[in-house]
Write a structure and sequence with these properties.
The structure holds 2 protein chains of 2 kinds. Chain A has 1 helix and 11 strands. Chain A is mainly beta. Chain B is mainly beta. Chain B has one domain: Immunoglobulin-like. Chain B has 1 helix and 10 strands, in the order E-E-H-E-E-E-E-E-E-E-E. In chain B, the strands form 3 sheets. Chain B has a 4-stranded antiparallel β-sheet, with no helix packed on it. Chain B has a 4-stranded antiparallel β-sheet with strand order 5-6-9-8, with no helix packed on it. Chain B has a two-stranded antiparallel sheet with strand order 1-2. Chain B is elongated. The two termini of chain B are 22 Å apart. Classes of the chains: A mainly beta, B mainly beta. At the A-B interface, strand 1, helix 1, strand 8, strand 9 and strand 10 of A face strand 1, helix 1, strand 3, strand 4 and strand 7 of B. Strand 1 of chain A pairs parallel with strand 1 of chain B, so a sheet runs across the interface.
Chain lengths: 143, 130
């Protein structure tokens, strides 16, 4: 079995572009474009904390159900792809349906998202901290 | 072996450990898109060929290079909108359906369950390329 000992991968023609042969053994995919540039797993609740992550410097508790993850290395623009999710637990009473999330402000140095109730009549869209775990990730171009 | 091509089963960093290269191949996102559902403008993307607006909150996202099967993993999220129709109803949830090798479809809804256009909408796909 072959093994490469290396601390850094750099493209020969373009430093930031390396092709990887895909599973079908013919089509190639771009390594840099396919990598998440940030991911984070956080303990939810009223005081969010980063449990594990890459390329994060801190998390800011913006308010109930609203967090901002700050990046160590910034993105080149705010037009990156961002996803977020949350565990549907912590039902502390009252109507609670499908838990969800939506994105708030995206900036080159941080991404912000919110966690909320789903369709539960009186609680439609209310922001919530009543869950124990959430996560987020972004893909795009580093600065 | 072609110039500039390395074939290896494992990558090893001096301090951070080793990674089998199948994790590089299989762990990389094969497509991602960020778009505005209201204006039908794609802001940035990877392995994405075209965007079709099928109506309010309903979109088809096509791939440049197709997948080997339709059993791939899709994740989507959308940004809140400035909706004034109901208090706390500004969030937007994203759902995926019609997984095909060459495209996927996405719908966005408000927390009260009504379909509507998302503003910033995001999609990422992991799976096997053809």
């Amino acid at each position: 079995m072959s093994e490469i000992l290396v601390n850094k991968l750099t493209g020969t023609s373009t430093a930031g572009s390396i092709l990887v042969t895909g599973e079908g053994n013919s089509t190639t995919t771009n390594l840099q474009q396919g990598l998440l540039k940030m991911w984070a797993d956080l303990s939810g609740g009223g005081t969010p904390a980063i449990d594990d992550s890459t390329n994060t410097s801190s998390v800011t508790d913006v308010g109930t159900g609203e967090r901002r993850i700050n990046l160590t290395n910034s993105m080149s623009s705010a037009n990156y792809m961002a996803i977020a999710g949350m565990i549907n637990d912590g039902n502390s009473g009252g109507a609670r349906g499908a838990a969800g999330h939506h994105l708030g402000t995206q900036a080159t140095g941080s991404v912000q998202y919110k966690t909320m109730y789903g369709s539960t009549s009186s609680s439609d869209g209310n922001l919530t901290d009543s869950h124990t775990q959430e996560g987020a990730g972004i893909a795009g171009d580093l600065a | 072996m072609a110039l500039g091509e390395i074939k290896a089963d494992t990558l090893t960093h001096s301090t951070a450990g080793s990674l089998a290269t199948n994790f590089v191949v299989e762990g990389s996102a094969k497509s991602w898109v960020r778009f505005n559902g209201g204006t039908s403008v794609v802001n940035d993307s990877f392995n994405h060929s075209s965007f079709v607006d099928n109506g309010t909150g309903n979109y088809a996202l096509h791939y440049t290079n197709a997948f080997g099967n339709a059993l791939y993993c899709g994740q989507a999220t959308a940004k809140e909108v400035a909706d004034t129709s109901a208090v706390n109803n500004n969030g937007t949830f994203a759902m995926l359906y019609s997984y095909e090798t060459g495209r996927i479809q996405m719908t966005t809804v408000s927390p009260d369950g009504n379909v509507r256009d998302g503003q910033t909408s995001n999609l990422t796909i992991n799976g096997d390329l053809a």
